[in-house]
Amino acid sequence: MAPVTPPVPDAYAPTERTVPTRSRERAAYDRETVHSILDQEYVCHLGFVRDGRPVVLPTLYARVGERLYVHGSTGSRPLRMAGGEDPGLPVCLTVTHLDGLVLARSAFHHSMNYRSVMVHGIAHQVTDPGEKLAALDALVDQVVPGRSADSRPANAKEAAATAVLRLDLDEVSAKMRTGGPNDEPEDLELPYWTGVIPARRTYGTPVPADDLAPSVPLPSYLRGY
Amino acid sequence: MAPVTPPVPDAYAPTERTVPTRSRERAAYDRETVHSILDQEYVCHLGFVRDGRPVVLPTLYARVGERLYVHGSTGSRPLRMAGGEDPGLPVCLTVTHLDGLVLARSAFHHSMNYRSVMVHGIAHQVTDPGEKLAALDALVDQVVPGRSADSRPANAKEAAATAVLRLDLDEVSAKMRTGGPNDEPEDLELPYWTGVIPARRTYGTPVPADDLAPSVPLPSYLRGY
């Protein structure tokens, strides 16, 4: 039987913007790699152009299928710029995991192990109320999975004060480096320590708010922190 | 006696670009705060405009006094765009530390504790050979203090293959959030756990390269990892 919906391709089509000028062997376009990098993080750096000049804002994002969402006050600059008659806001959304410091024998070959995703596209304000509420839940759950079901949902006033931008995953690339240093053959005998220092984000024990009633236990979804 | 050089002001002058549209109480312009945030990190997200569209690249930076440096291949896009007759490249360089996840009783008041710095300016290619070599050392030392003196310096060929951009600290702001959740008074009795999950980057035990001679010890500046 023919599928009801067209099959989703396994990879994003490279474009002139998403093919790096160098280290092309580090680039990837397959959906699985891109989703995996996006799903393990929640902070992105969102770039847009204002009065001809670049602006880069750190902000949260969530992935829902082939869409990313970011949110902000209805008064914030990028949200306003994408709103109104809504021509959309050209953006570049970048997510980066730092995995390790690569110390080579030569200063030149020092490097980083990392995984990053860069998404180019036009962000649009979400106007459908159902999509907006689902996006707000997704933003909470991207940071702490399960949390949206264990907190008070946004009320009408809060939802009205929040703008949500949608960015389709279409023009997307991943870039990554793994492994040890790549020293020059003539440097191998130099007396410098060489290797990788692994790096990752870690979390401390959750600190209850001062006004939390002692009867409220730490929920199971927070016990892994 | 009059100072030989004019005194450095204690703060960066706010501009229209560096005054946030909201949460202004989270913004800071004093040099000490800005330097402190910059000096505790080495990965930035560098934004620039290419063909009218934003691009956000993760890259390393170093601070030397009132200048930031980033580097890349002489063939990479932003480096080429800042070179040639060198009109300079308008950039926004953003550095972000994530310090904690703030879980409020309401989804709306979920937040992040963070410290970030945003630098706007025109980046220029460094052409002075001495400044360039010092910047390359600073880039290595920003990541691992002391490392540049314990590795082989760049030779002429490597230095020629590397372009360095300089960005003056002039139009600069910091933004940060600290503390616990700010729930609405009417939500205080809700039965949801609330508090902060501390977050930070941590490092694992350094992993020697496969070809490191066993006689080379782990240097003292790496023993803290």
From TrEMBL, chains A, B:
Transmembrane segments: none annotated. This is Pyridoxamine 5'-phosphate oxidase family protein. InterPro entries: Pyridox_Oxase-rel, Split_barrel_FMN-bd. It comes from Streptomyces qinzhouensis. Residues 1-25 are annotated as: Disordered. It holds the Pfam family Pyridox_ox_2. PANTHER family: 5-NITROIMIDAZOLE ANTIBIOTICS RESISTANCE PROTEIN, NIMA-FAMILY-RELATED PROTEIN-RELATED, FLAVIN-NUCLEOTIDE-BINDING PROTEIN. It comes from the Bacteria.
